[in-house]
Amino acid sequence: MNSIEVKTGSSAYQVRIGRGLLDSLSAELESALQGQKRPSTIAVVTESNVAPLHLATAVEALRPFGARILQHVFPAGETSKNLDTVTGILNFLAENHVTRSDLVVALGGGVTGDIAGFAAAIYLRGIRVAQIPTTLLAAIDSSVGGKTGVDLPAGKNLCGAFWQPSLVLCDPDLLTTLPIKVLHDGVAEAIKYGVIGDRPLFDLLATRNLDDHLEEVIAQCVASKSAIVARDEFDRGDRALLNFGHTFAHAIEKCSDFTIPHGRAVGIGMVMISQLAYQQGWTREACAPAIAAALQRYGLPTATDFTSVQLMPYLLGDKKRSGNKLTLVIPETIGHCVLKTIAVEELQDILA
Ligand code: GLY
Questions:
Q1: How far apart are CA 73 and CA 52, in angstroms?
Q2: Centroid of ligand 1 to alpha carbon of 143 (angstroms)
Q3: pLDDT tens, residue by residue, 139-170
Q4: CB distance 315 to ligand 1 below 6 Å
Q5: Residues in contact with 338: Cβ distance below 8 Å, sequence separation at least 6, in sequence order
Q6: Radius of gyration of the CA atoms of the chain, in A
C-alpha cells in the first residue's frame, strides 16, 4: 500500500494506492473526511462501460459508511465529455436534493473524473468529490491534481475548473478488467513522467514487465505529479511540464474525431515534439528514438498520418496558448524537460 499526500495552497489530501483497496472505501472516506461535516448522501457517478464492472462493488463498499447512496450512469466515451452531460449530473444532484455537505464519487477513467469533478466543482458552488480511477491513465494523471472540465467543439478541455478531490482511492485490481489496449494507452502517460523528470521510471518502463511493477509505476507517477501540483496548482508555471506531448496530442485527438485515444495521441505527440526540438536545434540530444522504442514495447503508435495543415487549427486552439505565444515542452534529455515559449507564427512556419 502506498499513500501519497497532495498538498496545495488550499487543500491537502491523500492518494491511497493498494490492491483490494476498493473494499475499504468506507473506512478510507471516514479517514479522509475526519474533522469535516459528514456527508449524508453520496452520489456515485460513473459511465456505461464501468458500471457493469465496478458500480455494484463500489456501492457495497460504501454501505458501512451509512449514507444514502445515489447512482448516476452516463454514456461512456470522450463524446460524452461535454456540458450536456454535466447538466445531466447537476440535474440529477438537484432532483435528489444533494446538499453542500454531501459527496460525489467519480468512479471511472479520465472522462468520468473530469466530468464528475467539474459537476462537483460547480454544483451549489462546490461540493466535495472523491476520485476512484479505473484506468491507468486516470490513476496516474487525471484523478490527481484537481483539473476538471469538459471539451468544447473548438477543442479539448476548454471549459473547466480547478477542484481538488478530498480523496483519491486507486485500486490497481480495477485495472485488471481493462482491455490490454486501454491499459497500454495509460502507459504513454507513465512514459511521459519518465521523460519529464524520472529517468529510472523511464528505464523501468523501457525494459521491465509492467505487470510486475504496476503499483510501483502508479506510485512513482503520482509522487511526481504531487510534487508538481504542490509547486504550481493553477498551471501558471512548471505544471505545464505535464503537457509534454499534449499540444500535438490534443490536435491529433480532435482531427481523428477522438477515434485515436488520449494516451496513443500523447505518445505520438511526445515523439513529434522531440523530433521537432532536435531538428530545430532547441536541444542537443535526440530523445525521440528512445521514446518511440519505449512506446513500441506497448504497441503504441509513434507517428500520425495527419498533416500539419490538418493539425494546425487545433494547435492554434490549444488552451495553453497565451496571446500569440504557445508554450511547448521540450526534452533536453530523458529525465529532464524544459518549457519553450514560441510565437504561433514561428510554429506555423516550422510546420509549413
Ligand atoms: N494532466 C495535466 C495536469 O494535470 O496538469
A1: 10
A2: 9
A3: 999 999 999 999 998 888 899 999 999 999 99
A4: no
A5: 329, 330, 332
A6: 20
Cell numbers for 57: 462493488
Give the model's pLDDT for residue 319.
67
Instruction: Give nearest CA residue, ligand 1 atom 2.
Output: 242
Domains in the chain and their CATH numbers? 2-177 (3.40.50.1970), 180-351 (1.20.1090.10)
Q: How many CB atoms lie within 10 A of CB 229?
A: 22
Q: What's the predicted TM-score (pTM) here?
A: 0.95
Q: Candidates 111, 114, 142: which one to mutate for ligand 1, based on the most atoms within 8 Å of Cβ? A: 142
How many residues does the structure list for the chain? Answer: 352
- How many Å apart are CA 62 and CA 71, to the nearest integer? 12
- What is the DSSP annotation of 225-255? HHHHHHH-TTSSSGGGGGGTTHHHHHHHHHH
Which residue, among 116, 119, 290, has the nearest Cα to 195 in the 3D structure? 290
Comparing CA positions, the residue from 74, 112, 71 lying closest to residue 93 is: 71
Q: Which of 122, 188, 170, 189 is nearest to 149 (CA)?
A: 122
Distance of CA 277 to the CA centre of its chain: 25
C-alpha cell recorded at residue 147:
483539473
Interior angle at CA 97, CA 34 and CA 167, nearest 5 = 30
